Amino acid sequence: MRHTQAFTTFLTAVVNLNEARITRLEGHVAAIEDFLSRSDYGASIHSFSPQGSWAHKTIIRPVTSEDRFDADLVMFVEPRADWTPKQHVEDLYRVFRASGLYKDKVSRNTRCVMLEYAKDFDLDVVPVVRREPTDWEKLLGKETTFAVCNRLTDEEEATDPEAYTAWVGELDDATSGMLRQSTRLLKYLRDIKGTFSVKSILLTTLVCQRAEERLAIDSWNDPWADLPTAFRTILSDLDDWLQARPIMPVVENPKVPGETFTRHWDQEKYENFRNCIHRYREWVDDAYNEADEQKSLKKWRDVFGDEFAPGAVTESATVAKSAGFADDRSLVLAAAQHGIDFLKRFMSRATHVVPVPWRDAPRRIPVTVTATLHHEEGGAEAGRLLNGQVIGRGWHIRFSAAVGMGGVPKGWRVRWRVTNTGAEAAAKKQLRGDLAKWNKGSTTHWEHTAYVGVHWVEAFVVDTKGWCIGRSEPFFVVIEDRQASAA
User: Fold this and answer.
1) Start and end of every Adenylyl/Guanylyl and SMODS C-terminal sensor domain (predicted)?
2) Four-residue CA torsion sign, 104, 106, 108, 109
3) Residue 12: DSSP 8-state
4) Inter-helix orientation angle 267-289/227-243, to 10°
5) Strand segments (E) across 216-303
6) What is the pLDDT of residues 180-235, one digit of tens each?
């Protein structure tokens, strides 16, 4: 089922960058433009223009409070004959460093300077050299050219950010506004899952090229009829294109031949991206084609996480009753009496648990999780916590994962899945059941005991190719209605 209204609400409330952040961004950008226009920057400034996801209108909200969003501002400048390319970036850095307001915010990247703002976003200011043709060159058909400046190689690199932005806008208009919305959803999927890496400009290009191909096809049905249909169309077309190319292709800027967007990829990263898109395409097809409303919502939540249609899938809040217990406290008493085997049988009733996105490796290695109790996160250890032990509210727990008899090999990642049950967690919309968003690789993970009920933590070890090479047994935490001080 499509659940069109749920998609619209999800996009507005969860995925889109909210108006307060946009207003703050625009205010800082206006201040930067005014500052640079009055500065002693050594090249003549022609104009400013937004670039990247902000300009393309595909920018999304950070998925956790610890994540940041970034925006790009192009500063078009006139060529200066006595400067080499790197001087455009170095002099811009000098101007910001000389400012009491910006000196502690600024740093240099390869082609820009970055301003890091205290709250949650970074602004890249990119000097772009703009060369207008002479009157004679115009008669010969030559157009204005643009180049970014690589300060490491001291070379110019052709670009045309405004032409690219216009291309995205034209395709979005042709898809009735569905292209940009679908791109935001796909970027959210990337960030919420954390299973593949792809630069936003590369992902946007791949998606727009598939839309361009689709628009050239005569079809009796409308692939852009609504957001779930458009998203499914984009993902399906992208998967088909990737599956036909087992070797990493070169993806160029469609408006600047020779400018490649795959320079940060390699074959290994490409294969992982290709496999993940194929897997998520199957999940999306399954959710879209599911005729049962509740089952379909559950499958869409497997794709996008528990912030999609919150509260629409209600059976998980009544796990205790479905297991034959009057309430969560009765379930806690039974868990204390019957131990781990009882708790493992109970797990299957938690229908809100999201499947992990990785393939199981042919050969698995053991993963062990241990836990310690603390009165505050990062504080001194107050004791060991055993699997299935009953404790009160208010404890901080430090979980640690070990592979075999040692640590996690370099390049491998540990991902944590935390599942809560019970009426209290459900009322606070904290049933979870998906991969932790704020911990994408650490061998340790912190939790806080807050809700009466049975909860568990699992650790998954993923190698550099996206294979799950090991997973721990569930570590059960049973919380009763008493405070930590009484433990």
Assistant:
1) 363-480
2) positive
3) I
4) 140
5) 252-253, 256-260
6) 999 999 999 999 888 899 999 999 999 999 999 999 986 667 899 999 999 999 99
